[in-house]
SSS sodium solute transporter superfamily
Amino acid sequence: MNVTIVLIVVLYMLLMLAIGFYSSKKISTNTDFMVAGRRLGPLLMAGTLAATEIGGGSSLGVVANAYGSWGMSASWYIIAMGIAFMILIPLAPKFRSSAVKTVPEYFRRRYDKFSGGFSAIVMMAALVGLTAGQFKASASILEVMLGLDYTTSLIIVTLVITVYAVMGGLWSVTLTDFVQVFLIVFGMAIAIPFALNLAGGWATIKQTVPAEHFSLTKGIGGWGQIAGFVIMYVATFSVGQEAVSRYYAARDGKAAVQGSIIAAIVNFVFAFIPVILGLAMLSLFNQNLLDPSVVGALKTNTRYALPALAVATMPAVVTGILFAGIISATMSSADSDLLGAGSIFGNDLYKIFIRKGAKDKEVMMVTKIAMVIVALFSLVTALYANNILTLLAFSFTLRAAGTFIPYVMGHFWKKASSAGSIASILIGSVVFFLMDTKVLPSIPTVNNIIPALLISLIAFYVFSLIMPPKKETLELLYEED
C-alpha cells in the first residue's frame, strides 16, 4: 500500500482521537456527556445528523447497488433519508422541548417505569447489534484499504472509536461527525472526475450502460418500495437514540428545525455521488477498461471495488482522502450507536433499576464503563458473526416497529396511556418479527414495517381507550438528575 495513503488514513484516526481529548475538557455533567449540554447550533446538529445516518450502506452500499441492478434508483436509499428529515421538521421542536436525554426516559416519564424499562431493553439490544455491525464494516474497509488482516483492523477501529467516544460523549461525537460528514461528501465527490475521465465521459457511460440503469424507479422496485424507505427512516430516526439524541441536544427548537433542514439538504446533494461512481464502474467494466485486480474485487465483493478502483487509477493523495471519507461513513455511525447504548444503560437501567437515585457523576461513569463493555462485546461479535449485517437491518427496524407510535403520539394525544404504550410496543414488534421471519405472510412490494406500524397504531389506540391514563396530560413526570 502506498505510504501517502496510509499516512492520510493514520492522520485521520489521530485527528479523531485529538478531538476526543479536546471534547473531554468540555464535559462536567451527565447532560454534557449525553446531549452535549444541549448547546448544538444548526450546523453542528446537521453535520452530526447527516454523518450518523450516512453509513457504509449509504456510501459503498449505494455504489455497489448502482453498479448492480438498481442503477440510478439506488439514490433513493439516501434521498429517502433527506425526505424523512424534512418530515420530522414539525416534530423537531417537540423532541427538543421534552428535555429528556434518551427515548426510554421519555417513555418512563410520559407513561410509567415499565414502559421505560421495556423500551430501554429493546433499544439497547438493537444498538449493541448496530455497534457490532458498524465495527465489522469499518474493520472490513480498513482491511481492504490498508492491506491489514481483519482482526488487526477490527482492534484498531474499536480502540479509536471507543476512546474518542468515551472521552467526550456526544460533544466528541458531534465534532468528529462534523469532520466526517465533510470527508464523506468531499472524499467521494473528488473521485468522480477521475472515474468519468477514465470511462470516457458521461456520454460514453450512457452508451455503455443499459438504459434501465438510468431509471429512477425501476431498479428499486417502484414507488411502493420508495415510500417504504421513507416511512422506515421516519420511524427509525424518531426513536433511534443515535439519531433523536441530536434533537435533544439542540440549543432550542429553532436550531432543531434548521438542523433537520440542513441535514436533509446534505442528503439530497450527496445522494447522486455514489450513484455516479457506481455507473462509471459499470461502464468501465463493460468497456473492459478495469484493472484485473479491480475485476477480482468485483467478483469477491462489489462493496470494495471502489477502493480497488481508486488504488488502480487515482493519485495517492486523492485515494487517501477517498479512503478517509469511506471509513468516516462507518465510524460516524459506530460512535453514535456506541454512545446510545451506553447512555440508555446508564440513564434508564442503572439509575432506575440497579442503583436507584444514583448521582450525576456516578451515572456518567457507569455510562462510560457500559460503552467500553459494549465495545468489547461488539468486537467479539464482529469477530465471529458472519451474517451480522442482516441482523442489523432486522434489529434496526424491529426497534421502530413497536416504539414509534407511542413515542410520537405521546407528544400530541393526552389520552395516551401506559397500557396503550405497552400493547403498541409488544404487538408492533411481534407482528414485524413474525412477518420478517416468514411466519406471517408479507404484502408484496410493501416493507414489513408498514403493516407492523398500522397494527401498532390500532393497538395503541384501542388499549389507551380501554385502559385510559389516570390523568390526561402531555406533561412529563419531573425527575431530578
Observations:
- The chain has one domain: 3-399.
- The two ends are 51 Å apart (CA to CA).
